[in-house]
Amino acid sequence: QVDVAAMVRLFGYVDVTDTGFIVAVLSIAFNPLFWNVVARWEHKTRALSQVFGSPRAACYCLGAVILVLNCVRSHCFTEAMKSQPKLEGWDFHWTYYSGLAISAVGTLFVISSFLALGFTGTFLGDYFGILMEEKVTSFPFSILDNPMYWGSTAIYLGWSLMHASPAGLLLTAVVAISYTIAVLYEG
């Protein structure tokens, strides 16, 4: 049996009606939806490849847009977290350093995924017809599936712990749910 009292108390710190919080949720949900819709549209129509003159140029442009959207999402996440109260019982060095360690592991997964896949492998090159010679099975793909998604989620979790933020934890759950849906959609 689950004791929901702790969850209710924790999320009593979160104002889900706050405009910044809503914008953060929308930006979190928008990103994977955007890149999946655009990539599938490109795969069917080759419209971006035609506009940019080549699949590689189109993929690089989409990758740049995705990076900008990820910066916007992170900014919205941070601003929403800062505008909500901290959980004072978590505002200790051990929580901060635990969050820092989780973020470091997440960063390791994100960067090593990028290095293993390259830019076009990371940013949906397969939808543009830019295929890798073989499936990547080296680290971090040897440890878990979709390490970039879960690494990103870990970064947000760590960031939330570092700021003792219940709103950040709830937004991290939204990130995890969005990525879970994206994995189902992509699979």
From TrEMBL:
Q: State a single Gene Ontology molecular function.
A: phosphatidyl-N-methylethanolamine N-methyltransferase activity
Q: What is its EC number?
A: 2.1.1.17, 2.1.1.71
Q: Which domain of life is it from?
A: Eukaryota
UniProt keyword Transmembrane present: yes
Q: Catalysed reaction(s)?
A: 1-hexadecanoyl-2-(4Z,7Z,10Z,13Z,16Z,19Z-docosahexaenoyl)-sn-glycero-3-phosphoethanolamine + S-adenosyl-L-methionine = 1-hexadecanoyl-2-(4Z,7Z,10Z,13Z,16Z,19Z-docosahexaenoyl)-sn-glycero-3-phospho-N-methylethanolamine + S-adenosyl-L-homocysteine + H(+); 1,2-di-(9Z,12Z-octadecadienoyl)-sn-glycero-3-phosphoethanolamine + S-adenosyl-L-methionine = 1,2-di-(9Z,12Z-octadecadienoyl)-sn-glycero-3-phospho-N-methylethanolamine + S-adenosyl-L-homocysteine + H(+); 1,2-di-(9Z-octadecenoyl)-sn-glycero-3-phospho-N-methylethanolamine + S-adenosyl-L-methionine = 1,2-di-(9Z-octadecenoyl)-sn-glycero-3-phospho-N,N-dimethylethanolamine + S-adenosyl-L-homocysteine + H(+); 1,2-di-(9Z,12Z,15Z-octadecatrienoyl)-sn-glycero-3-phospho-N,N-dimethylethanolamine + S-adenosyl-L-methionine = 1,2-di-(9Z,12Z,15Z-octadecatrienoyl)-sn-glycero-3-phosphocholine + S-adenosyl-L-homocysteine + H(+)
The alphabetical list of record keywords is:
Endoplasmic reticulum, Lipid biosynthesis, Lipid metabolism, Membrane, Methyltransferase, Mitochondrion, Phospholipid biosynthesis, Phospholipid metabolism, S-adenosyl-L-methionine, Transferase, Transmembrane, Transmembrane helix
Which subcellular locations apply to this protein?
Endoplasmic reticulum membrane
> Where does this protein chiefly localize?
endoplasmic reticulum
Q: Name one Pfam family in it.
A: PEMT
Recorded metabolic or biological pathway in which this protein acts: Lipid metabolism; Phospholipid metabolism; phosphatidylcholine biosynthesis
What Gene Ontology terms describe where this protein resides (cellular component)?
endoplasmic reticulum membrane
- Keyword flag Transferase: yes
InterPro entries for the chain: PEMT/MFAP, Phopholipid_MeTrfase
According to the record, the segments passing through the membrane are: 20-37, 95-124, 165-185
Its topology with respect to the membrane? Multi-pass membrane protein
Biological process according to GO? methylation; phosphatidylcholine biosynthetic process
Q: Which Gene3D superfamilies match?
A: 1.20.120.1630
PANTHER family in alphabetical order = PHOSPHATIDYLETHANOLAMINE N-METHYLTRANSFERASE
Under which name does UniProt file this protein?
Answer: Phosphatidylethanolamine N-methyltransferase
- Give the originating organism: Chaetorhynchus papuensis
What gene makes this protein?
Answer: Pemt
